[in-house]
Design goal:
With 64 residues, the protein is an alpha+beta fold. Helices cover 52% and strands 17% of the residues. The protein has 3 helices and 3 strands. It has helices spanning 11-18, 22-30, 48-63, and strands at 8-9, 36-39, 43-47. Strands 1-3-2 form a 3-stranded antiparallel beta sheet. The longest helix has 16 residues, at 48-63.
């Protein structure tokens, strides 16, 4: 059985991963640092790609 890479995370998971609050996640979405996708009428997820890009950008900006 092959496992597929995760393409989107629950908002709580991203908040935990980044060690920030849910409201900070929504601010990052509003500022277009993270990409939110709607799942059905009430569900929302943050794309794994946007999380990875955000972490890479943060790492690059903290390095200098």
């Amino acid at each position: 059985m092959t496992t597929q890479p995760q393409i989107a995370y629950e908002i709580n998971h991203v908040a935990e991963k980044l060690d920030v609050s849910r409201s900070t996640i929504y601010c990052l979405v509003k500022d277009k640092h993270l990409t939110l996708v709607k799942i059905g009428k009430r569900g929302s997820r943050i794309t794994a790609q946007s999380v990875n890009e955000y972490l890479t950008a943060r790492g690059a900006s903290n390095a200098g």
